[in-house]
Structure formats: C-alpha cells, structure tokens
Amino acid sequence: MTTARTPFAAVVALGVTQIIAYGTLYYSFSILAPDMARDLGWSREWVFGALSAALLAGGFAAPWFGRLIDQYGAGRMMSAGSLLAAAALAACAAAPNGGVFVAALIALELASNLVQYGAAFALLVQLRPQVAARSITYLTLIGGFASTVFWPITTALHQVLTWQQVYLVFAALNLVVCLPLHGWLSTGLARSRAMASAMPAPVVGQLPDDRKRIGFALMVTGFALQSLVGSAILVHMVPLLSGLGLGASAALIGTLFGPSQVVSRLINMGFGRNLSPVILAVIAATLMPIGVAVLAWTAPSVAGAMAFAILFGLGNGLLSIVSGTLPLHLFGSEGYGRLQGKVNSARLVVSATAPFALAFGMIRIGVVPSLAIAVMAGALAVLAFLMIRRA
Length: 391
Prior knowledge:
Layout lengths: L7 H20 L1 H12 L3 H29 L1 H21 L3 H18 L1 H11 L4 H12 L2 H15 L2 H33 L16 H24 L1 H10 L2 H6 L2 H15 L5 H22 L3 H30 L4 H16 L2 H11 L2 H24 L1
Helix pairs in contact: 1-5, 1-7, 1-8, 1-9, 2-3, 3-4, 3-5, 3-16, 3-17, 4-5, 4-6, 4-9, 6-7, 6-16, 7-13, 7-15, 10-15, 10-16, 10-17, 10-18, 13-15, 14-15, 14-18, 17-18
C-alpha cells in the first residue's frame, strides 16, 4: 500500500483562485459600498441589507450546489462558478437601478458557493481523500493572503476608478485567471479518476452513528455563530476601525489580519498536527471573541486595535482550516460535497443578517455595544465545539 502524496500543483492553483475569489467577491465590498449607496440613492445600511439578502439566497442554494459538486465533480462546478462570478460582477457594474443591482448581488453570492473554500475543499477531497486534511491546511495557508492583497488593491483602484470600473476589472480577473485554472483542475481530476483502477478509499468518520445527528447540529451551530461574528467584522473591518477613532491607521491595522491568518496556519502545520480538528475548532472559536473584546475595551488605542487584528486573524485562520477538516474528521469523505453544502447553507442563512445588523447597530446603538453582542455570540460558538468534544 502506497502513501498518497499531497497534490501541490492543485493546491497552488486553488490558492490563486481563492485569493481572487475572496478578494473580488467578498473583501472588496466594504470599501466600495459607500459609493454604491451614493449612486443607488440608498443609505449605507441598506446596501449591506442587500448583501444580507444575497447571502441568504446563497445559503438556501448551498445544499443544491453541494449535490451538484458530488455528482459532476468540483472542478467542473468551479469552472461554471468562475463564469457566473464574472457575469455577476459585470451585471452589478452595469445595473441601471437598485432592483437589478440586488439581483446581480444575489448571483454574486450564488457564484461564491462554487468558487470559494467549500467547493475548493471538496475538490481536494475528491482528488485525494487520504491527504485531504493536509491539502486543506496548505490551501488555507495561501488563501489567507486574500484580504492582505485585495484590501490595498481595491483601495488603490478605487482612487482612480469608479466602483463600477473596479468590478469590471475584477470580472476580468475571474475570467482570465480563475476560469483557466479551474478548467485545468477539472481536466486533471477527471483524468486521475479515469486512470485509477478503483476510486480512492474513502476516509471514515470518527463520530459514532448514534451521535452523528447531535454532532452535526453542534458543528453547524458552532460554525454558524463563528460566521455570524466573522462576516459582520470582516465586511466592516476598515469602516469599523475608522468608526472607533483610528482614522488613517484603519487600513494599516486591517492589513495585519491576513498575515495573522497565515501565521496561525503555519503554527498549526508545525505544532498542531497531533491536535484533532475539534480542539482546533475550540481554539479558533476562543480567539475570535477575545480579539473583539480587546478591540472594544481598548478603543481608540492603536496597539489594542493591532492586538484585535492579530487575535481575530489567528482565530479566523484556524476556522478556515477546521471548516474543511472537522466535517471530514467527524463524518468521513463519502458525500463530502453534499455535507459541505448543508454546513454552508446553515452558516450562510444564520449569518446573512450579520453585515446589515452590524451596520444598523453601529448607527443605532453605537460601535462598542454592537461589538459586545458579537463577543457573546462568539462565546456560544466555543460552547458548541466543547460539547462536540464530549460527544
């Protein structure tokens, strides 16, 4: 019996597409949102309300996309997702009114289901399930640079281009870079399956059959609560820091988030190999609310904000890993795409209100009380993952 090797070429190719997918479809939104609101004649909070509606639609569609990934292969579906992402970005840019803009934004979130981590993890599981957990760790190491790359790029582009023109540039990136790479990955996955004498041996889940239902419910609850905190904070990262009085330092502090994600993944690769994904989930869930609490307690201290960005980045970096490895560890590789679809559905549906809620809360009750609510949600996620450990 031979030991399966990590498909490094596939991991690097997916890493590039993940940086572009998260950078163009997610991290750029908060920077461009004020001008979107101005051009649409909306308040800023209603622009984030439109994003929440789009996230909700993406959440409802996620189980269906998961079944398609299992049925047709992750590579093919990611290729289709690149086309849809480019078309949706262009449609947002060309939207003549708010209704068309919301429809295009919904298409953007549907595309996210097909080109971001959930689909990429499924591709790695389908390619070589025996080393999928290791491959997922390597992939998240590369993908962690998305915010570091695209926050400054979006800001720089927006200084010379309108938000519509920025979205057209991003549409071109999805077509010119991501589509060919996803097509190559699709071809390679199909060839490896055709040449194999048998399908790769599936990874068996560690959770006993009689505890799978409660384990799934606890896992989904933990991920949903973390996504609630993560999506609210990340979408508003730069304006949130500005609102706390950090002014010109906000963008610089925000850039610490990406490297912190990478550092957490490097630490995990070096020292966390013997830790189960359940333990990693508890650590990730603990770091994120601690970081938010530090920010709320120390504002407007630049040092406190830097500590927040580092702690939050460390936690979110580990979360990206365990969102792929924990379902594999607990339930195995059989039907992994469908399982990821269900997890993403619950996560997105619960967290869909987060960008709008935080924007509304910062305006109505203030930044610090809004952050206190986020800390409480993060603490509940810790409890959910601790209960999985008991199971």
